Q: What sequence folds into this?
């Protein structure tokens, strides 16, 4: 099976982050895979693709030149001749569906987001029959996809997009007298809610909150919100908040923390927060997407998205009792390794690919009949 894996961009993080792991399951199933990206953005996912031996083609255009992107994709797939177009996120899905219809290639579409812009929701709902399968990255997104896109039930499957690694680095427990290290991992984008985190920290400072020990907050990531966040941090006088920039070693970054923060306004699965739990970190997160189900009181706490006050209260509770963090982190790690095992990841992916095998075989039969019909018509003429 030849799979064209179509993504919006090769930006570090986001939908590009799990591609190597997904590709590993596809290859184990015997697939020949090539990645096609509609635009580059920061290109930080490319080293991981290269390390995984993934061939990729990246278009040089932007994010709104849809016709040019469609023509580029059609030319690329005419050369690659895939059996399947596998898409991720709205733009890639709609363009992939268009080429799939033109070239009679079945399309499989990831759904990652717990929030869709109204226009994107309308477009995807209208095009729901153009994908042979819809694959949700989490239980939350599975339910949302069923409710808002309403694809035929037999076309909707679950493949949780995180495989926990027992060999990943584990965070060291906080020790009395040590500075407490808090952190988050993600793009500096409004959807990640880092402005809400800064507002919560500013509120604690303004209220004269006294933590049990000194603490520092590091946010590892880059994005267009950096200037606004720097200004907000400066205006609040927060000298213990650091924008650490993009990290090429996210698991090592997480292993250097004592408490993980995920204040997102919207999420699907949220791989970074689950990686933090894998690293034996307790988590304070917004109740966005799958986080509402993964982050229990035993491993941290959840607060409403966009709510600085409740986030400040949750931070104050754990900053007052840092001795509780290590035990919560161990519970988080045990749960993450059991819930998101590599075996479960592989089994879910194999189930999707088995379904895809049947679709491709059926599509091949229909294509052969269409070719025969065209030949008969040409002979009659």
A:
């Amino acid at each position: 099976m030849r799979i064209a894996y179509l993504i919006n961009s090769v930006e570090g993080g986001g939908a590009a982050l799990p591609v190597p792991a997904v590709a590993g399951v596809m290859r184990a199933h015997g697939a020949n895979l090539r990645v096609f990206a509609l635009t580059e953005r920061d290109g930080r996912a490319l080293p991981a693709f290269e390390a995984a031996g993934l061939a990729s083609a990246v278009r040089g255009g932007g994010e709104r030149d849809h016709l040019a992107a469609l023509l580029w994709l059609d030319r690329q797939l005419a050369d690659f001749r895939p059996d399947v177009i596998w898409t991720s996120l709205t733009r890639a899905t709609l363009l992939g569906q268009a080429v799939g219809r033109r070239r009679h290639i079945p399309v499989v579409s990831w759904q990652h987001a717990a929030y869709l812009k109204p226009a994107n929701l309308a477009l995807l709902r209208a095009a729901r029959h153009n994908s042979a399968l819809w694959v949700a990255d989490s239980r939350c997104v599975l339910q949302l996809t069923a409710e808002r896109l309403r694809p035929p039930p037999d076309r909707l499957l679950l493949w949780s997009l995180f495989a926990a690694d027992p060999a990943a680095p584990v965070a060291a427990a906080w020790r009395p007298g040590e500075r407490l290290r808090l952190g988050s991992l993600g793009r500096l984008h409004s959807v990640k809610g880092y402005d809400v985190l800064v507002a919560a920290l500013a509120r604690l400072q303004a209220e004269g909150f006294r933590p049990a020990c000194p603490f520092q907050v590091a946010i590892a990531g880059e994005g267009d919100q950096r200037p606004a966040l720097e200004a907000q941090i400066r205006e609040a006088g927060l000298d213990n908040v650091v924008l650490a920039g993009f990290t090429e070693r996210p698991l090592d970054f997480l292993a250097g923390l004592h408490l993980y923060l995920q204040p997102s306004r919207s999420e699907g699965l949220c791989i970074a927060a689950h990686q933090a739990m894998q690293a034996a970190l307790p988590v304070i997160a917004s109740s966005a997407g799958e986080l509402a189900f993964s982050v229990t009181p035993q491993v941290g706490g959840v607060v409403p998205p966009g709510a600085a006050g409740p986030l400040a209260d949750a931070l104050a509770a754990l900053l007052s009792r840092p001795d509780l963090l290590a035990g919560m982190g161990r519970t988080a790690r045990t749960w993450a390794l059991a819930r998101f095992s590599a075996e479960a990841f592989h089994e879910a992916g194999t189930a999707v690919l088995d379904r895809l095998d049947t679709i491709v075989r059926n599509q091949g039969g229909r294509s052969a009949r269409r070719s025969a019909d065209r030949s008969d018509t040409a002979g009659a003429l």
